[in-house]
# Entry
Amino acid sequence: MENQWLLIAEWLDLIAAKKILEWKCEFPPDDVLPSDKLDKCVSAWCKIMARNMTASIYPPEEVRPWILARLVSCSFKAKQEAEGSNSWPDVTKKTILKAMLVDQWNNELKQKWILTPEGGSLDGERRPAQTPQ
# Structure
């Protein structure tokens, strides 16, 4: 059986790629963090996304890059979890997505965002430099 953490990582990557095309936006700079006010707004939109990850949502333009940042950061974190464990937490996908996109971002991943290599993600892979055409 495939590791559930890898499945969630693939799903988050797929959603990020879809949102890049849908929203026609880029990732935020990797040397800044959102203001507290913006970060709270992003968290609110991530909670909405976690309830239905396949729904089309249209958050304000300034929120979109930070949702992308959370999606790729959480994907990387899920890949790390897959390396350390084959078990899946006894919670629903909705609960784990909310926990990752909001709680884990605020507790851990946000600070790692500014430590990424230029144009890279938390795992050192290249992020798209431009919006796909």
